[in-house]
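name: query_chain
kind: protein
chains: 1
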Amino acid sequence: MAHASDPTTIDPREAAHFGRLAADWWDPKGSSAMLHRLNPVRLGYIRAQLDRHWGLDETSRRPLEGRKAADVGCGAGLLAEPLARLGAGVTAVDAAPENIEAARIHAAGQGLEIDYRVGGVEALAGPYDLVCSLEVIEHVADPAAFVRGLARNLDEDGLLILSTPNRTTLSRLLMIVIGEGTGQIPRGTHDWEKFLTPEELCALLREAGLEVVDTTGLGFSVTRGFALTDDKSLDYFVTARRAR
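structure:
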């Protein structure tokens, strides 16, 4: 839950950039094509963390039934919709009004009820059993305040899952020089200087009163596409819970 004294963590330039991409967010061959290719891998990671944390039935099609989930920086709903299909009551927020409008229209067409809100982490009203924010923290104005906001909205037995690019020579080459340079990723999407290393992100999580329980790399190859890996030099996931 946001505190009145908290400044917003939204970077208006970032919100405007992603808002301009809203129209074709759900087009698997459009400007968000990379996210569509990435989605099955990150859903697999999330499901594995949920099953381990709560001892869930791996064969259940609705393992989040009765639980509340938040998706922070949801875009047009590429993660929020699968979370809803897994049974969660989903609240999803994004700084770009255009994205939220596209998300609401698409969810309605799928018969899904998702609480979409325009805003940043400050728009949440937790606690939530699951808080996700994937490929978002590198776009916010104040990463430390953002992490504190996520932590405040996490239930006592909840799980927080983040993903973000690492600040390495490899990420600069693949994501910016090649990805943005060839148009596979919309130009201007990333600022390499704002990427966080795993050590930096884990320190922010600990400072917010959380305990890191997993870090896993996300790799990419021309032959295999995206895949989970021990190598965190391109991108990585972090899972955390309240410190015990």
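note: Confidence is low (pLDDT under 50) at residues 1-6.
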